[in-house]
Specification:
CATH superfamily of the largest domain: RNA polymerase sigma factor, region 2, helix turn helix motif
Shape: elongated
Structural class: mainly alpha
Strand content: under 5%
CATH class of the largest domain: Mainly Alpha
Radius of gyration: 19 Å
CATH topology of the largest domain: Rna Polymerase Sigma Factor, Chain: A
Number of strands: 0
Order of helices and strands: HHHHHHHHH
Largest sheet: none
Length: about 210
């Protein structure tokens, strides 16, 4: 089985209403789908894709901040399941939790690869909202709270990102509150976000499949 029956990407994503509900029956169905996929069942793989690709793509996009990278991570995650290179172990949690963790791991691995190649898009562009970058980092880091991660920055970075993350202030509001040029706010925010991203990517570990 060299290729998944369907391309995993936003252009083929199922409607939002197809996302599964959090119910015991859905968990049982997902476990059954994993079992059937392991046996090479194309229909089961199509069902997995239709039911879960909208949620997984949304998470992937939240982590990567780039539609192309998000689609690539989703495709890689589903392809590994189809090829039997990744499988759910009931002893390690629910099938839903494993699937989300599997996708998150692939997205982080892809970002690390792009970072090594110098091809990773800026997580915070000059005209972007600071809070948007922080939301993306919060999705990336998982366990550790954003408040704890902010303590690793220098004081200006801590102050700017804390106000942006906890109080929701935009660059113009930060400039007014801190009495600093908006260019300084943006440059400090960008530098601090990149520092956080590097730290988070370096500390993220591969979960057991």
């Amino acid at each position: 089985m060299d290729a998944a029956p369907k391309h995993a990407g936003p252009e083929n994503a199922a409607p939002e209403h197809a996302a599964p509900e959090h119910a015991a029956s859905e968990s049982t169905e997902l476990s059954a789908l994993f079992w059937l996929i392991a046996a090479g069942d194309h229909v089961a793989f199509a069902r997995l894709y239709e039911n879960w690709s909208p949620l997984l793509y949304a998470l992937s996009l939240r982590i990567t901040g780039d539609p192309r990278l998000a689609s690539e991570a989703l495709h890689a995650a589903l392809l590994q399941i189809w090829r039997g290179q990744a499988s759910h172990n009931p002893a390690h949690g629910t099938p839903e939790g494993w699937l989300v963790t599997h996708l998150r791991t692939r997205a982080i691995e892809l970002m690390r690869q792009r970072q090594r190649e110098g091809q990773l898009p800026e997580i915070f562009s000059r005209n972007a909202d600071v809070a948007a970058g922080l939301t993306r980092l919060a999705a990336l880091q998982g366990g550790e709270s954003m408040a704890a991660a902010l303590t690793k920055l220098d004081r200006p970075g801590q102050e700017i990102l804390t106000l942006a993350y906890l109080d929701g202030l935009r660059p113009a509001e930060l400039a007014q509150k801190l009495r600093l040029p908006i260019g300084t706010i943006r440059d400090t925010a960008r530098r601090s976000l990149e520092t956080l991203r590097t730290s988070i990517l370096a500390s993220s570990t591969e979960p057991a499949s």
